[in-house]
Amino acid sequence: MKNTSVAAFVEQAIAKRGKRLISVPALVSELRSAKPDCEHTDDELSHLITVIAISKGCNLSFMRPKGFDAVDW
């Protein structure tokens, strides 16, 4: 993968999704898969995603899909 900044990766990922609903936990997970050596915490990534998505007029979801974390609903 080309060495890009975390912010640039987030901007590209949001641009690919267009104005659709952005799932913050899913995008954090996608970023972790693409950049496993990322030094930022999940909270920091969530804040970055939120700021960029809102600035682009996107709607956000902070819900974690079933099975996303260790607790099985």
Write down the oligomeric state.
single chain
Tally of DSSP β-strands: 2
Structural class: mainly alpha
- Helices, by number, come to 3
Order of helices and strands: HEHHE
- Report, as a whole number of angstroms, the end-to-end distance: 35 Å
Indicate the mean pLDDT: 85
Q: How helical, in percent, are the residues?
A: 40-55%
Descriptive overview:
Strands 1-2 form a two-stranded parallel sheet. Helix 2 crosses helix 3. 15% of the residues are buried. It has one domain. The chain is globular, with a radius of gyration of 12 Å. The chain is mainly alpha-helical and 73 residues long. Helix content is 51%, strand content 5%. The mean pLDDT is 85.
Overview features:
51% helix; globular; 73 residues; mainly alpha; single chain; two-stranded parallel sheet; 5% strand; 2 strands; 3 helices
Topology, element by element:
Layout: H1 6-17, E1 22-23, H2 24-34, H3 42-55, E2 60-61
Parallel strand pairs: 1-2
Short account of what is shown:
The chain has 73 residues and is mainly alpha-helical. The protein has helices at 6-17, 24-34, 42-55, and strands spanning 22-23, 60-61. The chain has one domain (6-61).
